[in-house]
Amino acid sequence: MAKGFQLGDEVTLTATIMKVLPGGVSSVNIPSYNYPFAIDTPQKAKPGDKVEITGFVTRIDVEEGKITVRTDGGGIVTVDREIVAADHVQVTD
Known about the structure:
This is DUF5666 domain-containing protein. 0% of the residues lie in helices and 53% in strands.
């Protein structure tokens, strides 16, 4: 597997804030994820700012080159492997 990703690895996605919405929520763009995604707005954030979203790998599709990540906020996103940064923290039983 590229970059050596394994199930349970903690990873980071870099997203761009597209719009700050009322109620402390922001709409963000995650590269290669073609759907709207919302996160809690970081303090002093504005459209165009880059934010890091962390989560854990829940699925790896080697043939398609995709990784599914469950974010710390509870969302699930499937993105291209190349845009994922590994934090090199593994969950072990």
